Every structure is written in structure tokens, then in C-alpha cells.
Amino acid sequence: MVDAAGKTTGAGRYTDDLTLPGMLIGKILHSPYPHARIKRVDARRALELEGVVAVVTGKDAPNKYGILPVGHDETALAVDKVRYVGDNVVCVAAVDEPTAEKALELIEVEYEPLPAYFDLEESMKAERDLIHENRPHNLEKDYHHVFGDPEKGFADADCVREARYIANEVTHAAMEPHSTLASFELDPHTGELGRLTVWSSTQVPYYLQHKLSLVLEMPMSQIRVIKPLVGGGFGGKSEVIPLEIIAAVAARAAKAPVKITYTREEVFWAHRGRPRTIIDMKIGAKRDGRLTAVAARVVQDGGAYCSYGVVTILYSGALLGAIYDIPNVRWDGYRVLTNKPACGAMRGHGTVNVRFAFESQLDEVAAALALDPAEIRRINLLQPPCITVNNLRVTSYGLPECIEEVVERSGWKDRHGKLPRGRGLGIGCSHYVSGAANSIIRSDMPHSTVNIKIDRDGGVVVYTGASEIGQGSDTMTAQIAAEVLGCTLQRVKIVAADTDLTPIDIGSYSSRVTFMAGNATLRAAEEVKKQITSAAARKMNCVPEDLVFRDDRVFKRDAVPSAPAAGDSSVVAGHVEGQILRGSLQQKRKEEAPKDWMTFEEAVVAAIDFHGALTGTGSYAPPAEARGGSFKGGGVGPSPSYSYSAQVADVSVDEETGEVTVHKVWAAHDCGRALNPVSVEGQIIGSVWMGLGQALEEEMVWKDGLLMNPGLLEYRSPSSIESPEIEPIIVESIDPEGPFGAKECSEGSLAATIPAISNAIYDAVGIRLREVPFTPERVLAAIRARDATAKKLDLTEGVDPTAPTRFREHGGALWFKGKGPTRHAMDPARRAETTMGGDD
Amino acid sequence: MKKELVELKINGRRYELAIESSKLLLDVLRQDLSLTGSKRGCDDSSCGACTVLVEGVPMMSCTLLAASCEGQEITTVEGVAEHGALAAIQKAYGDWGGAQCGYCTPGFMMTVKALLAANPDPTEDEIRHALSGNLCRCTGYTQMYEAVRAAIEAEQEAGSRE
Asked: CA A412, A399, A639: angle at the middle one, nearest 5?
């Protein structure tokens, strides 16, 4: 990896590692109430504290913003109301952290608590005290799609299965807490605060620049956003997090640089993770296993703000397509607001929970029809190139090979259904976009643009707006440039993610970088190469088509050595030669007959002599035919290309304790072409591992809007001891439009892991788990229900957002009305009870 | 709070510092000495990103009072590179995907260094146990085991050449 040394030596700088002269530390006061009106903020005592330079509130930056144009419902600091425990209220900028923390204690905020909504059903019933006044019934958005004729499809089916699945809330928990450093320059013309520079842990510098401009009322040209190293994103840094704007607002008020770094607890409040999702899934199939229809109703608990919500809910429906051949689809999606931190985009955006439901139910259908689970998936494969019923264009499709590989390597035929009780194998498949074909800010601009500059020293500098967040963006960019130019990787320098230096790129999310920024890099490098070729061809007395770039040299086609260049002497000579003055170089040329090869530097010098500056630009915009249907919501889901994954999990279940142990996961992923196999394998393993965490233990547990596990000890993710062996298998379908045939590899694998484990648990002990994570409590409850040793208690039953009959606490435990722990005084359920004369 | 004069020995160099007796080693490293390689990833000593070696033993510097380390040999990630070149384990982590976002990597470097000092040829099980105090959200750990093995092989090869 081109940036590895900075990471392994500690020399690489992340945002929190940066300091500026006179820098202040910002600390934020958060709301203790889930829903309350702010009556009064009194910060006088804080301002009097020695070392406190500025105190800012919502009034200092009241403009609303949001990552989606349809969801501008956030302010950097709360203006009139707070909407979740942890909402941002006041920011103090002080000389150091202890002073800022002391100042927070001196601030008085008077709140008027409002009824709060923590539960989907309750929230959707709300008539007044809405979370956002313009969202009746606290419904952010609902969509209803019908493709084909689902009624007829179900009527034609020989087997129909229907069930409710619940996936609880999870978060990214990237290792680096969010951090932002903001600094203003003094304008030489006005003498006032002028240009703003922001260093921030962001996946998309361009979006941050855009929102800063909106809130601070400054032109984008006066704002520079720089992304230093970012310690993991997984979607959590793909939108503007309040501290990124608060730091700038505080810097403006303090007239000094301000750095804010979240504590781990604040990171949990900032959240933007995967929402708790209730999925009613119905699948119909013919006796031979062919799917006739699918109906899904998806309800997501979006938290207090829109965030990426509208896109998340649309993905949950759109990506029912593009994996299997499903002729008839009905999908209803609801995104609901509650008084909890906002959910947003997280690895496998919108698709993971629905995929869990679908793949689990497909297993049930297979069992009912006495078909092998791997076989039913093969029966329903697409026949690409094709366009699905919901207008998704599928060009390359490695799913058949993925299934083949995992079935083969896991010994599926000999082991599935044949292992001793308590041990089982399960299969699951998934897919994901290689970038969204439509940008969230609608415009005609290319999604990625890359500039390349080569100077007389022969150094290739690539300017890209794509953000390295640990996924290998910079390495991919350098590799593509070096591959096209036939030069060594050491020659290539990457300048990335700095809005002053790099062209607009819509950043690192939706697995778009390799496909889109990669294609832009490819085109920029080819443009530069064309200029070098024409100059070199003149020098070498041949036609441009006859030249080959390889091993840091430019050869005439018939002079290309069969083996890689031996010895470095010629390269060293070329290096020296590239630096000598133009005049003497020409002199030297005259003395020599046309050669049949030149060094890269010689060719570059020739090109600069001939063309002047040697620069190239390439950009990428998804083709019109990949942009999907024109129906409402049809813009989300289309992608220029899809990745595919198939996985088999080998698990054992302890029927005494309910503990699930995953022994091994075989994960085959179709990534088009693996540009960097080590990175691709790392991304596959990382995705599977994160899916495993969600399947077995990760869960945000809420009580009255308060997060019960806001730390990395309580929010458990698998440690190195608990992590199973994961065997990544690369399948290369060579996409017709991807750079060198490459497509997505960082998200698609996650979604298959959860159903593979769920299906393996079914194979092991015959229980069908419909709520993730599969904690020992849930496994034991299902085992007891199977054995009828206890009253059947299906935790997912009766959770109907449109016809609620019972009250349900988030986080998995089921509380019947009046039996749960003391509820928040303002909880609507409790208020209803009180008015009915309840006695608690 | 009143400051005290404390002498710390870090990566073979002596530093004389006036610090509060309550100041944590991690904050001294990052704020007073600009040794920002050690990272803060949590509030409660649960992630291991701040791991340093104190007398060769991996310790979380976020829960260690700097003053209590007086007179002890402290090694941070900045002291791992040998004679200005990447140590075998650093090279291997970079080559074999042991580091993705890199934020947890300094902590892992220290843990692996301590592991290999105590046990130059650990089994995979021993590596898993040694690494279990450090959290990584990117890699799923698998490529780290490959990196550790590659580093051991590189060390052995270098040893046999000498």
C-alpha cells in the first residue's frame, strides 16, 4: 500500500494529530433530554472563566442543512429544540480541554421537556409534538413500488412463505473518533476574517465544503477542506457531522483556530449507523424452485433527523433486484423519525437487513420444496446482460462462479444437512452497487475528475478528490496511473482530497471509488500518455501506435524485451539524463541515431519540449442507460455495475447455553478484476467480519432514548480470539465498463454473512432465527420454542407498525405494557396509561 | 493543579517535563511531546490504540499516569523503526494488509513487538491471544496473522544471512 509506512510508524497524521499556533480546543454541551424545547441558555459564567475564548449556540449558525437536498432538517447546534439525548446545544472554545470541560459545567440551559418517541409504532401514531413540524406522524418518507404483477405471481406459486424479520441497530464504531480543525485567515483586502481552512475526518471533502458554505454563508471558493488520514469510515463519515460545522462556527467566533475531537461516547451519539429495521418478507416459488413473486414491507427507525434516510429506505427496496431473476416485486418502505440519534449510511447501505430477511426466507422456501439451498439460488440466477423489472442494468455477473466456489471449498455436498446435531452449514448471497449512478446533489457534473501532471523530473503527480479512508483509494489510483504509463509505482505521487488542489469528486462512499475515480484516473493517464506518445514517436521515427510503455521505458513494439528489464543501469542513466538541460539533451540526441527505446524521463522531456506543460484530465459519469427508471424513487439503486458475493458459514450451536460459534466462513466475491488482490481480500475479510459482528453480538441497546452501551467494551465487536477463519475467494467477472474490468469489493460481502450464519444455525439445530443479533438469549428462546419446553414467545410477532397491539422496547427485550422498567415521564405510552388511571 | 518536574525516558531519549501529577501518559506523549503516533480511540481503555511498551510490557498509555512512569524505559510506535528503516513487522503489516485505515496500527505494532520479544515463533493461537486486547474495525484480523508470520520469516531470513 502506498501509504502504509505512515500508518505503521505513527508518522502519518490524522486530524486529531494536527495542531496550529494559538489553537483552541472546542467542547460541546449535549442535551440530556430526548425531546425538549430550549427555553434559555445562559453562558455568562462560562465566558467569565479564565481561558474561555468563545461560547457559541444555535443562534450563531441557524441555517439548516442536511446531506440530502430533501432532508435539510439539521442545524449545527440546536436552535429551538433538542431531538435526542446527545443533541448538540452549546460549544465552548478554550485554551485547553480541562478548561473547556469546566466551562461546560458552568452553562445553564433551561429545557421544557416534550413527549418523546422511541418506538416505531408509537412514533407513527403521533398527532402533535412532532419531531419535525413538517413531518406528519413522524414519517420521514414512504415509498410504494410495484413491478410486474405480484398478486398473480403469488397466485401462481406452489409455495409461499411469509414472516417478519427484525434487525437491530448497529453503528460503524470506526477506530478514529470524529475530529475537525478549523482555521480562518485574515483577508488582506478587508482586514476581517477571510478564507476558511478545515481539516476533517471526512469521507467526502466536497460535501463538507458545500454544507459549510450553506451554514456559514460563505462562497465555496473561500472554503478549503483537507482530509488528512482518516481512521475508518464505513459510512459514518460520509455526511457532515455536526462537529465539522461547529468547529468552524466556533473558530469564527473565537477568531482563532479551533479543534474539536469527539470522545467515544460522542461518536456513538453522532451515530448515522444502520437503522433498526422491521421487514415483512413474503416469497412465492414454483415447485421447481423458480421464484414467482416477492413482497417486502420495510420500516426503518431513522432517529431524529433525515440524514441519508430517504436513500437508505430506497436501497432496501431497489436491491431486491439485480441479484436473482424475480419477475414480480411489491415493496413498501417507511422511514420513521424517533427521538434517538440519526441513522445514516453504513457499509452495505440499506440492503443488509433486507438481504438477511430474503436469504433466510429463501432457505425456508428451499426446505419446504425439498431443494438444496445452493440449488435454489442457482435456479434463480439472472441471465446478463439484462435489465431487471425495477430498471437495474446488470452487465457482469459472477454470482454463479461465487456459488460454485463456496459450495466446492466448504464440502457443501457432503456436509450440509449431514453434520452431527449442533453443527451446520449455511449459504447466503448478496450484491452491492459500484457507486450510485445518480449523485445525491442532482447535477450534470461528472462524479469523478482526476488531473495528472508530469514535470521534467519524470514524477507523475495524480490529483484526485477521492478519499483514502483505509480502503486503499490512494493505492488503487497510483496503480492505475502506473499501469497506464508503464512506470514504477515509486514514480507516482498522490495528492488527494483537498478541495483547493484536487478536482471535484463525490468522495468515498457507496463503493464508488475504484469504478468511478479509477476510470477517471485511467482516462487522465491515457490523455497524458497520448501526449508523451506523439512526442516520443517523433523522436523515434515511428508511428504512435507502435509504442509500448513498460518498465519505466517507452519501446518500439518490436523492441519490447520478452523478459522484464534486467538491471537498473539504464534506468539510472535515464534518471540522470532526464535532469540535464534541454540544450545538451538535444545535442546528445543529434549524436545518436533514433533508438528503439527511450527512458520514461526522456519521453517526458520530449513531450514537454513539444507540448509545453504535460497535464491530462479524465472524468467519469455513469452512462445514461445505467441510471435507472423514471419512477419516483427510481434514482436510488441504479449503478454502472454490481458486485456479487456468495458465502458458506460453518457454525456450531451449544443448545445448553445458546452460544453460537462460527468456525469458518468461505466468502467468494466477484469484484470484476482484482486490481490489488491483497487489498481485495482485506476488504472481503473486513466485510465478512463486520457482518459477523452484526450477526452475533453488535447491537445498540436503548432505554428511553438513552444509549445503554456507548463504549467499545459494551458495544461488543469480535476480538481476535472470537474471530473465525475467513477464507476470501476472488472471482473475476471482468466488467465491461470498470477500469481494467474492476468493480466494487468493500461492501457487497457484508450482507451475505448474516443469512449464511442464520441458515447454518437452522442446519445445526433446526431453529429459524428472525431477529439479529443471534445472542444466546434469542437462540435459547428459539430452542425452547422448538422443544415446546416453554411457552412459545416469538419476539418478532405483534410488532406491526400500522396496527400496534403491544408495546415493544428497543434492544430486543419484550416488555408488555406496565411490566417494563420505569418509563420516561414523558413517554407517550406511560402518559396514555396515566390518563387511563394506570397505577404505576 | 500544581505541576511537578518529571523526567521520562522515551525511545531512548530523556525528556524533562513540568506536568500535573494527574496527567496521563498518552496526553503527555501527544500534547507535550508531539509524539502523535499513539492514538486515542476510546474513553475507557477498551481499544488498545494507545498501547506503548513500559519496560518491554505493553500498557495502555491512556490509563497510565505519566508521573508513575518516571525512571522506566518507555517505547512508543515512533521508536519501533530501527535505524531509520522500517522494522520487519512494519514492512509486513504494510505489505500484507495488516493496516487498512491505520488508526489501530500503532497499538498493534507495540503488542506484536512485545509478543515477538517474548516468543519469537508463536503459533496462530498464541498470536490471536496476544492481539486480543487491541481492537481493529477494518481488517477482521486475518491479514494481521499473515503479516506477523511474514515478519517472523523476514527476521529469520535476515538472521540466517548474517
From this structure: 150
